Amino acid sequence: MSTLYQEEIARCCRQLRLSSILAEYAVTTEGETHEEYLYNVLSKTIDYRKSCRISKLVSGAGFPKVYDFSQFRADEVEFQGECSMENLKTLEFRQQGRNLIMYGGTGTGKTMLSICTGIRLCEAGVPVRFFRTAALINQLSEQKAAGMLSRFFKKLNKTEVIILDEFGYVPYDRTGSQILFDYLSEIHEKKLVILNTNLEFSRWVNVLYDEQMASAMIGRLTHHCHLILFPGGNNRLRESSLNETYHEIAAKSRKED
Known about the structure:
By secondary structure, the chain is of the alpha/beta class.
């Protein structure tokens, strides 16, 4: 194919609002028939668009690192109820409308598994945002002080799954905590939350300051959720009050359903 035709194809792509990569594929793609050639060009262009969208979603999610499920040791995790590693890989939890609460000590793999899940969501075309909880709360306080909170929430509205990492590692700003609570209440049953924590439910009030707010946040997050335990050698996590409370809430939810 001559350079002239390649340039003309690129011009046609611009007019049709098609990716200019189609012009490149028109030169490099082969086919035994006109129909096969056209199909090969178009399918390559579709694959290219999908790859670009995934890259854009992953880069825009704010992951501190990129992990794959193949890097994660599933034998160090305890899934509760219907949840399983396959449930995460196939994104069945999303179809079920279930939040994920990952509970365990520092360095047990919560962040890694939440990122693996987040990237799988991106690969399925689902917008995700990853936040260190303390950093998000500080950002919420700053945005409110600057009168920019509505604009910030408008950006977050494009996200379908929010990942909150390191919840409970440090006490939070009261104003920011209230805004986070209001936001999580607003998106309840509209968006999914993946929350990583080392705190039992009974201790959430220690970082949120307000007992009623802590109780309400727990209620919203656990209304429809899967609990994933990261014992990390500490068997007491299996018998923790968080685990016990989760099963009580899950039993209550099943009766309501």
